[in-house]
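Narrative progress, year one. The postdoctoral researcher (J.K.) led the effort to move from monomer predictions toward full complexes, under supervision of the PI. The following entry was the first complex the group processed end to end, covering 363 residues in total.
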Amino acid sequence: MAKLKDFNNILKSQLDDVANEIKSSRFMRQLGEQILSDVVTRVRLGYGVSRDGAGKSKFKSLSKSYIQQRRNKLGFFTRPDGTVVPISTDSGKVSANQLKKNRTYLKRNSIKLASSTSPAKSNLTQTGEMIRSMKVNVKTGKIKIVLGTAENKKKAEYVSKVRPFMHLSRQELKRARLLVQSRLRIILKSKINF
Amino acid sequence: MAENQQTFTFSVPLDLDQVDREEIGEMVVEFIGNRTRKGKDVNNRNFAKYSESYQDSKDFSIANKSSTVNLTQTGDMLTDIEVLQTGITGFITIGFQPNTDENDRAAWQRNNTRPNFPKRDFLGISQKDLDKIVRIYRAKVPETRQADRATRSAANAILNSFINNLFNG
């Protein structure tokens, strides 16, 4: 019993040391990369999280007209006076000649979707640039997930209003905790023989 | 529709107290996660194959899956298995919290209640594997058990200090 009590004291004194050691930028980067990978996969699969620790939920569906745009069957042209004109390939609404012109216009201005999405898939992905630009930044004992450019940051803030994704789900937090726990154990074992 | 709560209860030697049962429960949960990720069911047999349409889907490639059936897309279902009850001497219950998406997913995999979901039972453990876990647990010295508990409670505090304001920087 005395042995266990001694061990208790050793454990207490070592845990603070271990907590400092675990702040090595190498481990923090590894942890950050795991978190980022979880977030990216979740978003590409079409799930958001509304607050830290909540469950994931499917993103709101895309609007019908936006799906048509992503299919390159609908586009918009802005005239010099500011009027926005829809350009459609719906044959019932325009003449044959206009239809041909519209098709040419839409072909020229086509949306090229990333391979990780499809026209009707709501996963915050068109070219995939915003999601790809997310990076792990480790500084002064903190992990940050940052968006590569100011434009992408703005885009992320805008889409988050309706489709929040910049939070960690209950399961993502648990996986991160398990990684910290296993690292803690390895360091502690190297310091105390148990 | 919310599915029935998915649980699995197994018996353990009567001399194990509640703390022991809690720890063994955690070890079994970890074992089930690892075994399932390797593509093996409760009887250590391969799971039924994925449908061709799923293998051709965007989700399949986004999740970077291979032909090994491991019930892992985001990994959330396996992450959500937890120790539910250890209060009865000789018994441990593990499983999912009721009325959660992951509980529903687990039910679809285990019970073959939806079209295109062949039965793939992952929530359970063979007696042989359980005996091995109990043996490993008994072989742990008290110090190891204590260190395990200490790391578990310290991990949360450390993680929170690392990821405070994760997306605002």
